[in-house]
Each structure stands twice: as structure tokens, then as C-alpha cells.
Amino acid sequence: MIEIKHLYKSYGKQLVLDDINLSIQKGVITGLLGPNGAGKTTLVSVLIGILRRDRGDIVIDGFNLDRSLSEIQTICSIVPQNLAIYPMLSAYENLEYFGGLQGLKGQALQARIDYCTEVASLQSFLSKRVHKFSGGMKRRLNLAIGLLNNPRLLYLDEPTVGVDTQSRNYILEMIKKINREEGTTIIYTSHYMQEIEQVSDMIAIIDEGHLILKGPKAEILKQDFTVSIRVCELNNALLDRFKDIKAARVQDDCIQLTRDEDFHDNLIEIFSVLKSHAVEVIDFDSRDKSLETLFLKLTRKSLRDA
Amino acid sequence: MTKIFYILKKEFLVMGRDVHSLAVLFIMPVAFILIMSLAMRDLFETHGVNQIKILVVNQDKSDQSGAFIGMLEKLGTFSLHHMDDEIDFDVIRHKMFQDDFKFALVVEKGFSLAADGDASNKSGRQMILLVKPSVNRQTYTILKNTFTANLAKARIAQLIKGQEELIDSAGIDIDQMMQPADSLIETRYVSKGKLKFKVPTSVQQSVPAWLVFSMFFVVIPLSNTFIAERNYGTLMRLQSMNISTGFLLAGKLLPFFIVNLIQVVLMILVGVFLVPLLGGDALTMGDSYGGLLLITTAVSFCSISFALLVASVAKTTEHATTIGGVFNIIFGALGGIMIPKFVMPDFMQTLSVLSPMSWGLEGFLDIFLRNGNVLDVMKESLLLLLIGLVMFSATAFIIRKKLSL
């Protein structure tokens, strides 16, 4: 769906996108994770064609960005980080205005408004003026407007900023529903790792204009999969046995085994050795490394500090 | 066309729900027109039909004093209100302030003796004119000269009494000689259009002046919505919908042009119908609707372009309101909106050319007052369209630059 090759973008002398290379499949939700100022919004703005890039090739759904911007903008939609809606208009008037500007009219416009309000659960609030909406409702309307042109590619730029947990979960479910039912390819930018973990199929981590990690979520999160086995007491004989297992690391009374190609064999051998020496296992812990830990490891800083 | 319809609908809904904008665009100019038309009535009184109210106390009660007062009444310039001839000055003074009389004329005893040239009247004083300090010098001088002229006429009438045969034998027509001086002078107002002329009144000045002023005040609602759209990402969203900067700007021009047209119609209606109800003169329009449309279009394009330029350079709505408001007030003061240009000294009249409101006002005055036509407003219109085009182009450049860093 999207092919980005050697993309560069700078504001004056400051390079904000530095040699971005990214390929995104059709129908996939890609979480673009990075701290504030990492270059997420700039990347999305370049992809939708409202910011000029310095250089690089971008092809979207077979259309070259330079030659077919209007075609690309017809099949894409963006839900901006800011609430790009008119507070003094009702929800319906907002939807009608943005739909009308995209060339929709008559029954086609009405049908899209009906669909979008149903997805966003705003049917009961269509005639209410937006300035009376809660933060979550405004976000849902912002998202609903982004769906009016039935986009094949949807950019969501931090769509849950400033909303409560309940509304956030609703919006995340809404996004998954759009992807599932319409087959929409979605690029979801956020600095909330929990959201990215919850909603994405693919993850791309961007920091200071560099794309530092990309790939399927499952693989990325399993990269640092570790099990910890806490035992009563380890003697030297046992320690010698474990030295042969490269993925194993022993510290005090805890054996940590990191995932590699021999993970299953290594795990069986460790338990065999412990059994043969009648060593009691006190605790066993296995878990994926969280995205936050991964981000910390990659950037050597937490998102909040970034 | 469909897109234009949705843009118009949105702009009118947003504006219609913004009470402050409606007040600035429609209520403020109506209030200004009403207040200034009535407040400036005296300034235009020498040309108009409004009479000067004068309290009259005739202490002389002679045929001569009666004839003199009758002469003043016949002029039509004064509205004389007679008081009891026995009252003292304190009562007159009280009455002047109570009923808003600027002048009081006391015809003293002995007026007839002086008129007859009786040598027993040694003082020479025949009348006392009481004047409020707020009266301007021009009005006072005109009034005093009128009294003097009529007093002289009364004396001549007295002088020739009984001498008719002698004068007649000298070939002098007494009736012709005693005709009111006013009838000897014909006043013609000069107009740009043909022969039709109009008497300038305060409403003829106020309506075009405050109309132009209010048209430039589109800067407040326009910049507020535009900056909100820019800061809240709406412009970004519209750009992502393949809507060009030119279309975005045109989407502001058309609705606010319609707003300006509504303002023109409303202010004219106020001048024609509402001002007379409150005691002012009625606005009279010119004959050239083409000229009116041309100058309206030019003022509108210039004012909307100015508003767009302010919106494009201002960072916040507060910033835009301050810049727009201050510039409008300076344009208004300089351009003859707040004070008519003919009252200004020469160098200020020369400076007024710096204000686009001045050109707009001249154009509307050409139509309303001087009965001008399309050709008469062409110069002002072209100037306004040109400066509007420069501001519009600058706005397009700034917006493009800001939206595509």
C-alpha cells in the first residue's frame, strides 16, 4: 500500500526525517510510535501531501506522490491531532460540510453520514452543537469526519489525546472495527505505547527523525522474550552445566533464559538438570518485554523524558 | 457549485451563531448612523431645513417690534417660541436649559423709539441676545448677522414710511426694494451628475461613512474563524482533501461579500426609514445603481482582503482583533468616517488619501450626495480593487508558505 524510500525532510537546518524507508501492506494497522517531536506528524503530513519533502520516493496504492497527488488525496484521509471541527456547528452540520467539500451530495452523502455516525456512536447527538460535546465525543466526531470519503488509507494522528480511558478504549475498538469491516489500511501515530500494542499489527518506532525499528508487532515483542526460573540453591556443579547454554544467564538463585532458535531445547535441558539434582523451583516467570522496555533499550530514554 | 454551497452554508451558520460578530457587523453601524445623524444635524444646519429654536421675549410690544419679529418668522430659518414679556432673565435662563434653547432674544423696551430714530433713546441698545456657551462661533455669527440685516431692513421700512410718493417719483420700486434679501440670491448645489442636486444633510454623511466603516469590520469574524481553522487543523484537513489555497481564500471572499451586500442594503434602509422616525432627515439615494454596485464591490473586496491579510499574519484571534480593530479606527479617523473631511484642515484632508476608507466614502458620497454614476466612482473603485488585489496576493503567498513549511 505504501512504499517510502530514502525520505528526507527538514525545517530550515533541522533535519526532522532522516532517510526513512518503510513498506506498509494493504489492510494493516501500523502503529507509528515515538516521543513528541520525533517526526510522526511530519511523516504523516508528507504522506498526505500537505508538506513538501526534501527528497525521497513515495508511492501510495500504486500512485506516485509527485505525479498523482489528487488521486492519492481522494483515497486517503487524515484525522489530525487537533480537533479539526467547528464547535459552533452541530455534528451533522460538520459532517455535511466536510462531506460536501469532498464532492459527496444527496443520498451518497447521507449514506456516508449515517455510516460514520453509526461507527462513532453519535446518532443521538447529530443535532447537538459540538461545543457542548465531551472531549471523547469530539474525538469520535473528528474520527467520523475522517471516514466520510471511505478512505482506503487512513492516517490517525494521536486520535486519543486528552480523552478518558473509557473513550480511549471505545476509539481503539472503533479503529479495529473500521480496519476489520472496511479493510482500511491505517497508520496510527501515538506516544502511548499501550495503545500501539493494543491496536497495531505492525509497529514502527521513530525517534529524532530516524526509523529505529519496524516489523510485525508479534515478532518485535518476542525479540526479548525471557523466562526467569528462581530456585532454592545453585551449586557450582549446576553452574558449570548451565555455562554451556549460551542463552542462559545465572544471577544469584535465578536462571534467565532468552529466546533464541534453541529456546525449547534449552528450556527442557535446564529443567532436566534441575530435576536430576533435585533442585526445588520456587518461581517461574515468563512474559513478553513491554514496548516501553523495548523503546528504552533502543533509545536509552523513556518516552516521557523524550 | 456544490462545494460553494456548503462553504456558504457553513460560513453563514458559524457567523449567525456568533452574537458578537453580528453585533459588530450590523448593530454597531446602525447605532453609529442613528447617533451621528442626529448628533451632527446642527453641523449641516446651514444647508438643511432644520430650524434654529429661539426663545423670544418682546418687552417693547410695539408695531415696530412686532414687525421685526414677524420678519424673522417669515425667514423660515428660525422657530420662535414666545414667552411672557414680564419675566426676568433668571426665568429665561432656566427655560433655555430646561427646553434646550441655544438662543433667547429679548426685544427691550425702547426698540420702537430706536427704530423711529427717536433722539430720546440714548443707550442705542435695542435687543439682548442670550447665547449658550456650547454654540459654535459660526452659528452665532450667522444668527447675529441675520438679526442685524433684518433690523436694518426694519429701520429702512420705518424711514420710508410717509415718503412713498417721493420715492416713487424717483423711480424706485418700494416693493422690490423691500423684498427679503434671501430671495435675491439663488443657491445652487454642485453635483457630479447632471442637473439634479441635493441638500447635504447629516444622514447623507453618516450612512456612507458608517457603512464603509462596518464593511471593514468583517476583519473581526473573518480573522477569528480563519485563525481558528488554521490553529485547530481544519485548514490542514481541507488541504488534505485536495482543496487548493485559492479555493480556500475564495471560500472566504464570497460569503463575506454577501455579508457586505446585506450591510449596504440594511444601512440604506436605516437611513431612508429609521433615521426620519427619530427626527432626522431621510437618506436620499442617487440614480446610479450600477455605480453603487461597483463601489460596493470594490470596498468589499478591499475590506475582505485586508481581513484575510490580518488573519494570515496574526498568530491568535486576540492578536487579529487588536490589529484589525486598531487599523480600522485609524483608517476611520483618517478617512473622514468619524469627522467629516470638510471639517478637517487641509493637511489632514491630504493625509486622508492614505486610508482606503476615504476612497470608499468618497465613492459612496459620489452616489448618494453628488448624484454620480459609474464613471464618477471608477477612480475610487479601481484604487480599492488594486489595493485589495495586492493584499489578497500577499495573503495567498503567506498562507501557502505557512501551510507548506
Question: Key features?
Answer:
heterodimer, A: 306 residues, alpha/beta, 6-stranded mixed β-sheet, 4-stranded antiparallel β-sheet, 11 helices, 14 strands, elongated, B: 405 residues, mainly alpha, 4-stranded mixed β-sheet, 17 helices, 4 strands, 63% helix
Task: Outline the structure in words.
The complex is a heterodimer of chains A (306) and B (405). Chain A is α/β, with parallel strands linked by helices. Chain A has 11 helices and 14 strands. Chain A has a 6-stranded mixed sheet, sandwiched between helices. In chain A, strands 2-1-4-5 form a 4-stranded antiparallel sheet, with helices on one face. In chain A, strand 4 and strand 5 form a beta hairpin. The longest helix of chain A is centred in the middle third of the chain and has 18 residues. The model of chain A has no long low-confidence stretch (mean pLDDT 86). Chain B is mainly α and 405 residues long. Chain B is built from 17 helices and 4 strands. Chain B has a 4-stranded mixed sheet, with helices on both faces. Chain B is elongated and about 100 Å long.
Termini gap of chain A: 31 Å
Strand order of the largest sheet of chain A: 6-7-8-3-9-10
Provide the low-confidence segments of chain B as ranges: none
Q: Number of DSSP helices of chain B?
A: 17
In terms of DSSP E residues, the strand content of chain B is: 5-15%
Cα-to-Cα separation, first versus last residue of chain B: 31 Å
User: Are there runs of chain A of 5+ residues with pLDDT below 50, and where?
Assistant: none
